[in-house]
Design goal:
- The model has no long low-confidence stretch (mean pLDDT about 85).
- This protein is globular.
- It has three helices and eight strands, in the order E-H-E-H-E-E-E-H-E-E-E.
- It has a single domain, classed as Rossmann fold (3-Layer(aba) Sandwich).
- It has about 150 residues and is an alpha/beta fold.
């Protein structure tokens, strides 16, 4: 079994601080990866005063078992000015292997001509091409305050 790290609500203040350091003029919108990215994307949208869009992408099944194929659904609404290069701040909770984020980045690039900058709360790979707040360990399961406890 993996080690478990539980985060409280206070850690989001660090995320908010990092988001405030970004220039909102560098982005057209925020895209959150549901469900894990819903809270960070909402915070980023409010702090940067940018519209928010959602995409469903899952790399784990309901029993927290890693899937071989990433399930990515299209955006719930189209990005502004389809065909014009959109600048997207993509938010999720954890960078594990990178499969989810890179899959969504490919969808946004291919289908919406978007250029993404990705931001996560926790990374398991500090060399990952994303901005992050905390450095997690490979064999760790992260529990955020909005998730069910006791997994």
């Amino acid at each position: 079994m993996k080690n478990k790290v539980e985060y409280g609500w206070a850690f989001l203040d660090l995320f908010r601080h990092r988001i405030k350091q970004l220039d909102p003029k560098d982005f057209d919108c925020v895209v959150g990866i549901l469900r894990g990215g819903s809270i960070p994307a909402t915070i980023a949208s409010h702090e940067l005063d940018l519209p928010i869009y959602w995409v469903v992408a899952k790399s784990y099944d309901k029993d927290n078992v890693k899937r071989k194929v990433i399930d990515i659904n299209a955006l719930f609404s189209k990005l502004p000015s389809k065909g014009v290069r959109s600048r997207v701040l993509l938010c999720d909770d954890v960078w594990d292997t990178g499969a989810t984020i890179t899959g969504v980045e490919a969808l946004l690039s291919d289908d919406y001509n978007a250029k993404c900058r990705s931001f996560v709360l926790v990374t398991k790979d500090t060399a990952a091409p994303v901005d992050w707040v905390f450095d997690g360990k490979k064999q760790t399961w992260f529990v955020f305050p909005w998730e069910k406890q006791g997994k």
